[in-house]
Design goal:
Largest interface: A-B, 96 and 100 residues
Oligomer: heterodimer
CATH topology of chain A: MetI-like fold
Order of helices and strands of chain A: HHHHHHHHHEEHHHHHHHHH
Largest sheet of chain A: 2 strands, antiparallel
Strand content of chain A: under 5%
Distance between the termini of chain A: 20 Å
CATH architecture of chain A: Orthogonal Bundle
Strand content of chain B: under 5%
Helix content of chain B: over 70%
Helix content of chain A: 55-70%
Radius of gyration of chain A: 26 Å
Largest sheet of chain B: none
CATH class of chain A: Mainly Alpha
Number of strands of chain A: 2
Number of strands of chain B: 0
Strand order of the largest sheet of chain A: 1-2
Distance between the termini of chain B: 62 Å
Shape of chain B: flat
Order of helices and strands of chain B: HHHHHHHHHHHHHHH
Number of helices of chain A: 18
CATH architecture of the largest domain in chain B: Orthogonal Bundle
Shape of chain A: globular
């Protein structure tokens, strides 16, 4: 049966039909991909090497080749633009460093909790996942309200006898605040006088601003549910017999989790961390809706800065250059994660295939 | 000495068993407590949002925590309807979301079928391209997409808002995987009967692919309903504002609403209803991780 079908399919007439149909079926997707992804990227690469200011078409007489000038402007030329760019990188870096570990840990914790056979488990899964389906606009408005100076959070804190900060209006860096508690209010001159990307070392070490912390909490709130589902799928793939065997051996819950569960869901941890990194380097909606970069640029992110430079300041070359630098950063972080989370007994893909097929039974 | 140990052994065993049972019970209680506490943290903000949308402005500012609006009013909702273009935003969101969703379901399944079943030269390369596209971060594409939309004369039109959103490599990927899981024998008999390829796809394979189509439908609906950045860069006239864009303008006070949280939260609550309904209708499919609706 199979053999007869294959010969039938190999008849030239049918193959010809199939090729035509195949390309016809693919055509809409390929055309749209080409028109709205591949070509636009090419155009934006050109714009990032040009002095286009938004007049006419960037492919026409209004744009001129300026080489690496836009990239140099951001990376090596001191000035306001470089300072904004450096600040946005600092802000987003802290956002990434805080959100990714916390959301991964919270998601895994939630997944472990709802993976047990407990009553109402469906309700709990729904409750944890629901923030993931809502729009960033709606969630941002909700958080603006919760964290407004007279809002819900500060009211709760006041019941505990604490006075909350003014949250989204507070530009102080978290690390600076903590240092302030120990009486350190001004930087040593070595940190104040050194600069990287237009931002002093002291400011690089500020930590996320109090305002940015609100966005950190919001990111954990909205994404932990999605990642919980990924972890849950991985946990349910672990064979029950493994858990039972370790229970018989008298392993405690924590040891079981640390030495059996975590190694087994390693690939999923990699996926979650990678998706987290890719997502957190692209924060845009929340900033656009919530703060537009204020207070004192401490919630400015590269994605928002790129948009702002292009659409509001008409510096399209600089805006496009920021977008491509951001792209490079995301690629870099993804590759580093890949290398860092590779398991110790990793075998390169090609050799793994040979290893799995010792008899050489490959087709 | 030895007899004492012998006598003591069973009782310690019993005792340790009893204490183990007690520990299990306590453990269960603790995990319920933890679950309930976290659930409150996750649900409470939404309760606050709904309750506050029925408050007056001063009430919302003075008693942000109270769960009983005093006085309860539907004023915020009325203002959305009377003073803002809420219905226009709703209409635009509906037009864009439904167009994007149905076109994506159709185009993704067409492409997925071609990649899974039809044999032709270049298939591997086409698939590799589509996978590579999945890796490009969306925010990097804001400027590029704007440039192209303008170049094609689609700026400030529904076309510019809808067509670029049809790029959905992940959807093609899901459909391809699903079609590959359907046994090929189903199609063979139809093929032998001389049915055309499109007919086989349309009336035999597509009806069998319902679970995957529903997945694409949910992802696309949710994605385009909640989309903001693309609409910011593809249109500027207020007549083309979607819910996300209109409500974002409300939020930043551009529409002269200042700090009126009941109004803003009412808008947030209303715009969340369609995705929430979709979520609760298809809840089992979305949350049922073992059957593969949501997979890495």
């Amino acid at each position: 049966m199979v053999a007869s079908i294959t010969t039938r399919l190999r008849e030239p007439g049918i193959r010809g039909h199939e090729a035509a149909a195949g390309w016809l079926f693919l055509a809409p997707v390929i055309v749209i991909l080409g028109l709205f992804l591949v070509l636009p990227i090419a155009m934006a690469v050109w714009v990032s090497f040009s002095d286009w200011t938004g007049n006419g078409s960037p492919l026409g007489a209004h744009a001129h080749w300026v080489g690496l000038a836009n990239y140099r402007h951001l990376l090596t030329t001191p000035g306001l633009d470089q300072n904004n760019f450096g600040t946005s990188l600092r802000n987003n870096l802290y956002y990434v460093l805080f959100v990714v570990p916390v959301q991964t840990a919270v998601a895994l914790f939630l997944a472990v909790l709802v993976n047990r056979r407990v009553k109402l488990v469906g309700f709990f899964r729904t409750a944890f996942y629901f923030p993931s389906v809502t729009s960033s606009v709606a969630i941002t408005i909700l958080f603006l309200f919760l964290f407004s100076p007279t809002g819900v959070i500060n009211k709760l804190l006041s019941y505990l006898g604490a006075t909350g900060p003014s949250w989204l209006y507070d530009p102080r860096g978290l690390f600076h605040v903590v240092l302030g508690q120990f009486g350190v209010h001004s930087p040593p001159s070595s940190l104040a006088n050194g600069f990287f990307l237009g931002v002093s070392y002291w400011d690089w070490l500020s930590g996320p601003s109090i305002a940015m912390c609100v966005f950190v909490l919001m990111a954990v709130f909205t994404t932990s549910g999605t990642f919980m589902l990924l972890f849950l799928a991985a946990l349910q793939n672990i064979d029950d017999s493994i858990n039972e065997a370790s229970a018989l051996d008298g392993a405690t819950e924590w040891r079981k989790f640390r030495h059996i569960t975590v190694p087994m869901i390693r690939p999923t941890i990699f996926t979650v961390v990678t998706l987290g990194l890719i997502g957190t380097w692209q924060v845009f909606d929340q900033i656009y809706v919530g703060t537009k970069g204020s207070p004192l640029n401490t919630t400015l992110t590269p994605a928002f800065l790129s948009f702002n430079q292009s659409f509001n300041n008409n510096e399209w070359g600089v805006g496009a250059a920021i977008a491509f630098i951001l792209f490079a950063i995301i690629v870099f972080f993804t590759v580093v994660t890949r290398l860092a989370t590779r398991s110790p007994d990793h075998v390169p893909r090609r050799r793994r295939f040979l290893k799995a097929q010792p008899g050489g039974s490959a087709p | 000495m030895s007899s004492a140990t012998a006598a003591g052994r069973p009782s310690t065993a019993l005792r340790s068993e009893a204490s183990a049972a007690r520990r299990r019970r306590v453990g269960k209680l603790v995990s319920y407590g933890v679950l309930a506490a976290i659930a409150i943290i996750y649900v409470f903000p939404f309760v606050i949002a709904v309750v506050t949308s029925f408050k007056t402005d001063p009430d919302a500012t003075q008693n942000p925590l109270s769960l009983a609006p005093s006085p309860a009013t539907t004023g915020a909702f009325r203002q959305l309807y009377q003073d803002q273009d809420f219905l226009l935003w709703l209409k635009n969101s509906a037009i864009v979301t439904l167009s994007v969703t149905f076109l994506r379901v159709f185009l993704d399944s067409l492409a997925g079928y071609a990649l899974a079943r039809l044999r032709f030269r270049g298939r591997g390369a086409a698939f590799a391209t589509i996978v590579a596209v999945m890796a490009v971060p969306g925010v990097v594409l804001l400027i590029p997409k704007f440039l192209m939309i303008r170049q094609l004369g689609m700026y400030d039109t529904y076309y510019g808002m809808i067509i670029p959103l049809l790029v959905d490599a992940a959807g093609v990927f899901i459909m391809k995987n699903f079609f590959e899981s359907i046994p090929i024998s189903v199609e063979e008999s139809a093929r032998i009967d001389g049915a055309s390829i499109f007919r086989i796809y349309w009336s035999i394979v597509l009806p069998m692919a319902r679970p995957a189509l529903v997945t694409i439908f949910i992802l696309s609906f949710q994605g385009s309903w909640n989309e903001l950045a693309h609409f910011i860069i593809s249109a500027q006239s207020s007549g083309l504002n979607t819910l996300t864009k209109g409500v974002a303008q409300l939020a930043s006070g551009q529409l002269g609403v200042g700090n009126r949280y009941p109004l803003k939260l009412a808008a947030s609550v209303l715009m969340t209803i369609p995705v929430a309904v979709l979520f609760f209708v298809f809840q089992r499919r979305i949350m049922n991780v073992s059957s593969g609706a949501v997979k890495e």
